[in-house]
């Protein structure tokens, strides 16, 4: 028998992942943080994302628990790492470098 609440939670998680991957800047941020923790300014200058856009994308990624704020910058969470390890993510990141 299908558990409706589990099915709903799964659908929401899948939607969040695809919504994240549909935005080039969020993909760039996740891929950069997958490689190493970075400060806000490092993300802005290395990825060439304007400050307001970077703040919005980081807030989105923090809200959906893919990125976490650290004392010296930002790092990827276990969930964010799982998203990064999807084969499709690697292909998208490589296409945008």
Description:
The chain is mainly alpha-helical. The protein has helices at 4-21, 24-35, 40-47, 51-63, 78-84, 87-95, and strands at 67-70, 73-76. The protein contains six helices and two strands. α2 (24-35) packs across α4 and α2 crosses α6 (87-95).
Please describe the topology of this protein.
Layout (H helix, E strand, L loop, with lengths): L3 H18 L2 H12 L4 H8 L3 H13 L3 E4 L2 E4 L1 H7 L2 H9 L2
Antiparallel strand pairs: 1-2
Helix pairs in contact: 2-4, 2-6
List key phrases describing it:
97 residues; mainly alpha
Give the % helix. Answer: 55-70%
How many angstroms does the end-to-end distance come to? 45 Å
Which structural class best describes the helix and strand composition?
Answer: mainly alpha
Please report which band the strand proportion falls in: under 5%, 5-15%, 15-25%, 25-35%, 35-45% or over 45%. 5-15%
| Total number of helices | 6
The order of strands across the largest sheet is 1-2
C-alpha Rg, in Å? 14 Å
Mean pLDDT: 83
Instruction: Give start-end ranges of low-pLDDT stretches.
Output: none
Give me the strand/helix succession.
Answer: HHHHEEHH
Oligomer: single chain
Any idea what the shape is?
Answer: elongated
Q: Can you count the beta strands?
A: 2
For the biggest sheet, the summary is:
2 strands, antiparallel
Quick overview of this protein structure:
This protein has 97 residues and is mainly alpha-helical. The chain is 69% helix and 8% strand.
